[in-house]
Design goal:
alpha/beta; 457 residues; five-stranded mixed sheet; six-stranded mixed sheet; elongated; single chain
């Protein structure tokens, strides 16, 4: 990874053994040896101190010391040993985790998982409500996500055939609510105006204090959060995209359950948070599902005919976010919905059973008697809410800078969902500004990339 300057450095030590004329403590003699290559390092984690006598003697007084920020010894082992780190993007709906060789910045393994906190609420506000309404709400939310992180660390190390105790640094990025819950910080003040974080600066906490099962002396670095609903995941996305270095106006739209938008213009950055909800993750959609095998991921209409593309080319079993977005765009273009989002009951693919109107994507006949896959009127309303939140955030920032969208040199679409959408569909429904397609860049999980950059440098 370019610009690698890790917080951890490894040093080979040949420590003189004690003698009758040299009865210094093991700690003193090891630090004295280390001082030959690292000046000013005079601290040693208590876990390292506890292991020191046996390690030195079993390794015949030759060892590898891992030093953090040229200040503290955080690991001791045989020379040479690999030094690892974990970067975690803790999203409202999904987690992404990466195992890195800290010395080289090379990614050794990557894993993703659903955020198990979702059982307590699909969005940030619902989880804050649970944290405040249940007697042990915050504690359960914290324990749940820590367990998920520990599970991902185990999977990463198993995949790369690495020892988990050699993971000596972690970086976790998250929105402000998730950040506070991981740290066990109070969240009541986040739930009411003016939505103030308990803490906003960068933090370094021992992993053992957070019950994260990596090296016992390892640190977890939490980058700074910006505001009550703009967190360190946004900081990481900005780090990855480097829009601050652009001379022309640039916008980042990081799409998720909580969407963040940033506009770089006139020499500064302005950011907004948009409560877009889980619709584009398949949530609150009747036939919605995550982007897994069987999910309809793209939709195209030709007259009254509908063609669908399914993940892994299997039998369709639901609709994921990119498919929902395409469907609404095609329905808008072909007159299936009007400008207010009402379904056209006269359209041959729209049916109404007296309670629910729906636009049929895949009929019962096409599914061999199984229930049809459709976009309902209620689904359209959920999509309107989601797209309106994002469009409003974009417009608010443009108005803040007295700009129009035509002045943007680029719009960087980030987030896992942002990787798979058809930008033309997002423009068609009014979610993204109508500017030339060549000005759009889709960059994937920028927050995860930024977390890895922070870990490596």
């Amino acid at each position: 990874m370019p610009g690698t300057e890790p917080p951890l450095s490894d040093h080979q030590l040949v420590v003189p053994p004690p003698a009758l004329d040299d009865v210094r403590s093991d700690t003193e003699r090891m630090l004295a040896t280390l001082a030959k290559s690292v000046s000013g390092c005079n601290q040693m984690d208590i876990e390292v101190t506890r292991a020191l006598p046996s390690v030195l003697r079993s390794q015949k007084w030759t060892a590898q010391a891992t030093v953090r920020d040229n200040n503290e010894v955080v690991a001791l082992g045989p020379w040479p040993s690999r030094t690892l780190g974990v970067a975690v993007d803790l999203g409202t709906t999904k987690l992404a985790a990466y195992l890195l060789d800290v010395t080289t910045g090379v990614t050794l393994a990557a894993r993703g998982a659903m955020n198990p906190q979702i059982r307590y609420g699909e969005d940030v506000v619902a989880r804050l409500t649970h944290a405040l309404s249940a007697s042990d709400g915050s504690a359960k939310l914290t324990a749940t996500v820590i367990d998920a992180i520990n599970g991902l660390v185990t999977e990463l190390c198993d995949e790369a055939d690495m020892d988990r105790t050699r993971v000596l640094e972690a970086v976790i990025v998250a929105n402000t609510a998730m950040h506070h819950l991981v740290l066990g910080l109070p969240v009541e003040q986040l739930s009411r105006a003016p939505y103030v974080p308990a803490a906003s600066g960068a933090m370094d906490i021992k992993a053992r204090e957070l019950h994260i099962n990596i090296g016992r002396s390892a640190y977890v670095h939490m980058p700074p959060v910006i505001a009550g609903f703009v967190g360190s995941d946004h900081v990481a996305a900005l780090l990855a995209t480097r829009i601050d270095a652009s001379a022309a106006p640039v916008m980042v739209v990081d799409i998720g359950t909580n969407t963040e938008v940033c506009l770089a213009a006139n020499g500064h950055l302005a950011s907004a948070s948009c409560a877009s909800g889980p619709a584009f993750e398949g949530g609150h959609i009747r036939d919605g599902m995550r982007a897994a095998a069987g999910a309809i991921e793209h939709v195209q209409m030709d007259g009254d005919m509908v063609r669908v593309q399914v993940v892994e080319n299997g039998e369709p079993s639901g609709i994921c976010g990119s498919g929902i977005l395409d469907a609404l765009a095609e329905m808008t273009t072909h007159g299936v919905v009007d400008s207010k989002g009402r379904l056209n009951l006269e359209h041959p693919r729209v049916r109404h059973d007296g309670k629910t109107a729906e636009f049929v994507l895949v009929s019962e006949q096409q599914r061999a008697g199984k229930a049809a896959l459709s976009v309902t009127q209620a689904d359209v309303r959920q999509l309107q809410l989601a797209k309106a939140a994002i469009a409003s955030g974009i417009q608010a920032l443009l108005e803040h800078e007295c700009m129009s969208s035509s002045q943007l040199s680029a719009i960087i679409v980030a987030g896992a969902f942002g990787s798979y959408i058809d930008v033309r569909s997002a423009i068609a429904i009014g979610m993204l500004p109508s500017i030339p397609l060549e000005r759009f860049q889709q960059v994937g999980n920028a927050a995860g990339t930024g977390a890895k950059m922070a870990l490596a440098s």
